[in-house]
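Problem 3 from the worked examples.
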Amino acid sequence: MRHAALRTEQTTRRERDASAAAMETVALVLEDGSPLPETAEDVHHLVQRLRGHVMVLGGGLPASYAEDVLAEAHAAAEEETPEGFMPSRVYLVRLARATKALAEVQAESSQHLPARRTTGLAFRGWPSRNMLRAVTFAVAMATLILAASVRPS
């Protein structure tokens, strides 16, 4: 049971981190006092970041949860960035609003939906550096003891 609770906490933390990262990017576009991007490259960079957030947040939601928000965000993310100063900025604001709505739904769903369960043993990532050091030390000591216990022939 302790491992299931830990997994649930880690999943919720990852979802919160994804929502928080998306909201930080949205704040760069929608926050009062934030300047409009000056160059087309700045717009392109922000659009790519927002599209990435839409893909990450949309992948974490069940299909039946907030279908309209998810569909709107995916539709906005799949559009081409328009050419021109004002059309590209308008598109950027529209994509940021769709991403914000999706992040809010994600944050809400992580509180109300039951945690995802994994069956069997789940891969938890690579062991820590100290764990690898301890295993290496134990193998070296076992080899040393084994070598010392063998009689010379």
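Problem 4, a separate protein:
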Amino acid sequence: MSENKIYNKNQPKIIWFVSILWLFVISFIAFLWNLGSTGLVDETEPLFAEAARQMTVTGDWITPYFNGATRFDKPPLIYWLMVIAYKLVGVNAWGVRLPSALAAISLMVLLFYTLWRHSGETRGRGEQGVAANGHSPLQGLGDQEGDRKNQGRGGPGRGRGDQGRRGPGDSQSPSHPAKALTPVPSIPPTPL
């Protein structure tokens, strides 16, 4: 029995570790694998790369230049990140695309963390989250906001006692105010 308790106690940690491992494997495959295998394509990618390269050569990190002309199409943060990548991995296609790939990975990690945390809160299960319960992290997202808006204002919500939830066809449904005001006429079926 004590082994079972230890296994259950460590299970959320194992699930969390495996999930993070899979997240980084998917991130590597999606964003870093073959990152610099093709040359710079399109019209804008080489322009950004050259402006960042000129920042590296001139040492002027304030004003981006392209062929001697100032280039203020975008804020300079992307140029600065490219310059840092150039200093780390060299001036090549991999260095140009590395800041965007790292930004995409961080967005994916943030989304994963948000969904993991939110899925645990909606079911009241804490850290056990998605994998331990076998539910989707998106399950229950629609109900929670409606419950917060209607709680204590006479609408359906948590703790309303015997009123319960009203269905979407009910005339007092708070999901869409126009439905409560406009009755839907019933049309009899026409014979063929």
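Solution to problem 4. The chain is about 55% helix and 0% strand. The longest helix spans residues 2-32.
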